[in-house]
Amino acid sequence: MTDYTIKIEDLCVEMFLGLHAFEKEKTQRVFISIELDVEGVNVSQGQFFDYDHVVDYVRGFNQQRIETQEELTAMIHAHVMARGCRAARVYSRKPDVYPDCASVGVVYRG
């Protein structure tokens, strides 16, 4: 059996995310990246981590409203941990907040 880190990078959702009035009026792009530390993988015996469920869960945030990136990343982290990950890092970033900044993001790990 082997341990792996699975990376899902920059999955884009359109959602209402933020405390400011302009963030509550229209959706914005949010990029979600996730690193999943999984153990006990043995592909020849059909033992692997099915990350389709994680991607589907994140896509479910499309058109949803959440006030903070901290809340969003904690929710995603709890979901992946409940699916049997040993550890995970969830990173969200909003690329359209400031015109002179590539993005503003939050990392939740544990």
From TrEMBL:
GO molecular function: dihydroneopterin aldolase activity
Chain segments annotated as transmembrane: none
UniProt cross-references to Pfam families, sorted A to Z: FolB
Protein's GO biological process: folic acid-containing compound metabolic process
Ranges of residues in domain Dihydroneopterin aldolase/epimerase: 6-110
Alphabetical list of SUPFAM superfamilies matching this protein: Tetrahydrobiopterin biosynthesis enzymes-like (SSF55620)
Coiled coil: none
This protein's name: Dihydroneopterin aldolase
